[in-house]
Amino acid sequence: MRTRFHYLPLLLFTLLRQTRPDPDPLQDYCVADNKNEFFINGVPCINPDKASSSNFVTSALSKVGNTSNQFGFSVTATNTLNLPGLNTLGLILVRVDIAANGIVPPHSHPRASEVTTCLKGLLLVGFVDTSNRVFTQNLKPGESFVFPKGLVHFLFNRDSREPALALSGLNSQNPGAQIASLATFATTPPIPDEILKKAFQITAREVEIIRRNLGG
Ligand SMILES: *[C@@H]1O[C@H](CO)[C@@H](O)[C@H](O)[C@H]1NC(C)=O
After folding, report:
1. Is residue 19 pLDDT above 70, yes or no?
2. Which structural domains are found in the chain, ordered by start?
3. For ligand 1, which residues put their CB under 6 angstroms from it?
4. What pLDDT band is residue 16 in, cutting at 50, 70 and 90?
5. 92 pairs with which residues across the strands?
6. Which of 66, 67, 71 to mutate to test the pocket of ligand 1 (most atoms within 8 A of CB)?
7. Distance 99 CA to ligand 1 centre (A)
8. H/E element holding 15?
9. Is 6 annotated as a binding residue?
């Protein structure tokens, strides 16, 4: 019996670690050295003596995104390439443009929670918890909504004439994103029909139609 409990502290430590965002920086900053070609967990830093103000500024989010795709949205993010100074700081900012009646389809970020602020337009946003309960909210400019880490969420521009604009902060420098529809029907290589048929309770023909519609 005793030996089983030896593992408890380790188990707790492991579980607690999993709820933490990106590791804390061990120095003031770690300006991304984008010339490196080896892979580590994150991006290596340049010599701090060589850092300059330009490493900490970007205009990446100043341009309107191109929303002419099947969903009608565009996401532009700061990252270690366009804003090398954010490396290891555990956060990014994202510009979300949504065409009239466009959506950011149901998707999740495996490594980050997200707080989004509506800057322009009328948004319907929501997320699904792990018991499939849905939380939705209409957002006007100036209002914010939070999507907890890893949970499926979506944004919809309710306005049928005007584009919408939102700004989101995420607590990882590399949140990752999986769009539910594409992660099932537009994968490389395709997920076997048999699995999609059973999972979605549809026919092979329907699998084919959805695949084609999504460009899979
Ligand atoms: C937006 O993207 C579409 C499809 O990729 C392209 O045809 C169009 O030229 C782009 N528009 C602009 C303004 O870049």
Report:
1. no
2. 1-60+68-177 (2.60.120.10), 186-216 (no CATH)
3. 66, 68
4. low
5. 170
6. 66
7. 13
8. helix 8-18
9. no
pLDDT in tens, 117-145: 999 999 999 999 999 999 999 999 999 99
The rounded distance, in Å, linking the Cα atoms of 128 and 133 is 5
Cα 47 to Cα 30, 33, 51, distances in angstroms: 8, 9, 7
Give the count of beta carbons closer than 10 Å to the beta carbon of residue 195. 12
Known binding residue 153? Answer is yes
Distances (CA, A) of 105 to 136, 182, 185: 14, 10, 14
What's the mean per-residue pLDDT of the chain? Answer: 93
Q: How far is the CA of 145 from the centre of ligand 1 (A)?
A: 30
Ligand 1 centroid – CA 23 distance (Å): 38
Whether the predicted pLDDT of 40 surpasses 50: yes
* Pair of tokens at residue 133: 């309960």
